[in-house]
Amino acid sequence: MTQQPSQTATTALALEVQDGLAIVTLTEGARGNPFDGTFCHDFKLIAAQLCDTQGLRAVLLKAAGANFSFGGDLKSFHPVRENLAPLVRQWTADLHMGLQRFLRLPVPVVCAVQGFAMGGGVALLAGCDLVLAGASTKFGSAFAQLGFSCDSGSSAVLTARMGAARARRFVLMAEMLSAAEAQACGLADQVVADDKLQEEALALARRLANGPTVAYGEIKRLFLKAPTTSLETLLEDEAVTLARVSATADAQEGIAAMTERRKPRFLGR
After folding, report:
1. CB-based contacts of 259: which residues, under 8 Å, 6+ apart?
2. Quick one: CA torsion of 82, 86, 89, 90, rounded to 10 degrees?
3. Tens digits of per-residue pLDDT, 198-227?
4. Angle, helix 154-162 to helix 164-172, in steps of 10 degrees
5. CATH says 213-259 is which class?
6. In sequence order, which residues have a C-beta less than 8 Å from that of residue 182 and are 6 or more positions away?
7. E-only strand ranges, the chain
């Protein structure tokens, strides 16, 4: 049964939810979707709302305008550059709380990336489960070029996607990667034609929203904890989790559909 969409709009982001699929849009495209105080505050609110969304089954993260995000707003930094520390602490308090909740959502998150993705914007997309990039997209890390260290979870999510040595080089050398280069090192999962990006990302998000939601959530949880968990503990967690998931309606449907040679109809439970 099709549900009526629910919508939320803040200054920097918009959220629409229908039939279990949440679409989060960075809406300040004319400004390059910068990470400033307003964005950080709004992102924390949207992430909290996603956590409380009943029946959530997948998320699509995208951005309005020609570029995904320029990252930190240097125009905001410049007038107060001699006293940045309090501002950084204030902004990251909101942003990092939002990221903790967003990155741990128990559903697949698809990201569509176009134009330039820089700094914190790269960290935001790198934390998503599947990243689709337009063929002309550029991925950059300008932190070191500005004399900054990294934030927005860069050290964790870039390492998870690219491997520690490659991620470190990307940030230290303030590299700019093409879409093809980003795909080759794991930062992007798929490169598509620029004019097909939004269409294909939405189709993928809808496909995942129609999938076995409980299994997806547990797969995400296991992979998130794997780097800091002993093999013995992880093996036991996998066994206990699989036993629990195998009893879900979706697992039963998956077995039946495979046996009956038909497409499964997953209900997210």
Report:
1. none
2. -120
3. 999 999 999 999 999 999 999 999 999 999
4. 130
5. mainly alpha
6. 133, 137, 139, 188
7. 6-9, 13-18, 21-26, 34-35, 58-63, 71-72, 109-113, 116-118, 130-134, 138-140, 176-178, 190-192
Q: Give percent above pLDDT 90 in the chain.
A: 87
Q: Which CATH superfamily is domain 6-209 in?
A: 2-enoyl-CoA Hydratase; Chain A, domain 1 (3.90.226.10)
Mean pLDDT of all residues belonging to the chain: 94
Cα–Cα dist 214/217, whole Å: 5
Q: What is the 3-state secondary structure (H, E, C) of 17-30?
A: EECCEEEEEECCHH
Fold agreement (6-209, 213-259): no
Instruction: Domain ranges for the chain, please list them.
Output: 6-209, 213-259
- What are the tokens at 86? 């309090």
Tokens of 12: 């920097």
Residue 88: per-residue pLDDT: 86
Tokens representing 179? 């879409």
Lowest mean pLDDT among 72-86, 183-197, 206-220: 72-86
